[in-house]
Input
Amino acid sequence: MARKFLFSQYVFRKRDLPYTTQLIPLSAICAVIGTATFNLPRTQNILAKWFWCGIMGEMYGGANETRYALDMEDVIADIKGEYSQNRTVNAAYFSATRLLSLQTRNSAAYKGIMALVYREQCRDFMQGTTMDIVKSMDEAPDIHHIFPESYCKKMNYDRNKWNSIVNKTPLLPASNRQIGGEAPSSYSKRIIKAAEIDETQLKTRVESHLINFSYFINDDFDNYFINRAKAILKIIETAIGKSIADKGSEQTIKDFGCSLED
Output
């Protein structure tokens, strides 16, 4: 059941699992509630909210024995319709400024955001296929820069921005080969030719990655970056079931150059 749940959240491979430690309470909860209760939509929603709050709140990074016990108690009670303190859900907090510090796949939040992008049914630029379990196991998508590293360096863009998760997305190897080190306006032409598609089809594929196509195709990095940061924050808010409080804070405005509120 735990395996089935992870697949439903678009976590397909061990390397993409945000917290291996979170599997312990997840498996225990599934064992206690049983298959019939597990399959109920309400149960799935409760599990998903707890799962994503644990990831985006980065709650499972330290000593976890106490949290295991509390989460098992809270989640099982919630599923049964009993009073629950929901301590992990209530304590979870994600800061908008955290997006800039997510630079490598080592953190749970980084892996979690990539899984959420998968969950949005993102399509590969070249093949147009969604990243489902079959495709993930077959060709192993990886995380790549949308505005390529060499191009960003040439343009003297802020490394904290272009190397952050905001400028990264999961793609299959063939798409990465077409991207190379050029601007989106240039590599888009190669993809259109190689994939034998038109710009409208490419637009659909690009936008499935939470990317504004107009900013993308015109190499407008600054507006593209802010727009995608906002889009990523929205899917995080949906996953954890709460608003991100600091989208318009002074620190966010300082780091991003503007508020991330709509």
